[in-house]
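anyone seen this seq b4? input:
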Amino acid sequence: MININATLQENTNTISLNNRGFNYGDAVFETIKVSNTKILFWEDHYFRLMASMRIMRMEIPMNFTMEYLESQILKTITANNADNKTVRVKFLVSRSEGGLYYPTTNSVDFHISIKVLDQEFYALNEETYVVDLYKDFYVAPTLLSTLKTNNKALNVLASIYAKENDFDNSLLLNTNKSIVEALNGNLFLVKGTTIKTPPLEDGCLNGVMRKQLIELIKLMPDYTLEESSISPFELQKADELFITNVITGIQPITNYRKKSFKSEVAKLVLQKINVKIRLG
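predicted toks r here
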């Protein structure tokens, strides 16, 4: 079952050919992890969605309160008999149909779908994970790049590059040739006691897990957090590299070209995230 504008329907995988998200990428979405009907980091997801809709000049309906959207997510989970499971929720908001490049309305439609996951808490994948730079196209260092929209042509091409070359992921560069992020998450670099992640000004996704880790690392007295640009030359000098998103949690990178990396800090941070979820 899927939820379309608060109405539960059988998932027939059909969509209007006039849907603006389908035609023009005129949509934003949140990928949310829910465990036993507990929505992880729901406040962060909600406020990011509202901010994204404002930036995209979408009309926010009066009933789009945190409580209403939460109820719609849980309603969809219940309809799929997944109340006692851990699921990935995709909450997609698209501008309503009308117009070509110039929309005739700023009103919106929403769609909620779910997928059952295997693990309730985050676990560290310590298998070999190899990445490389993708340099055919670049991310623009603008506010639009920080939004979670369905404009993902660059990510699709970079994922094909990774698959064709037997990499597990690709790292994206912006037009200033700074490292921005991975295909499916934000990048963190550890060198000594300094942990760096690209700033939003570089065009990286304003990730919910990124925000959680920044807050957490700032409370760790043994480490210093820096939001600053990362050059490709820094990668081979790093002690650790890891990718973050709300579904996987933390994915350590084990190899970049001839350099191998540890994962001690990744383990430590992941433990703290899991503790926060249990206590939250």
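Residues 134 and 161 are 7 Å apart (CA to CA). The chain has two domains: 2-116, 130-279. kinda curious what u guys think
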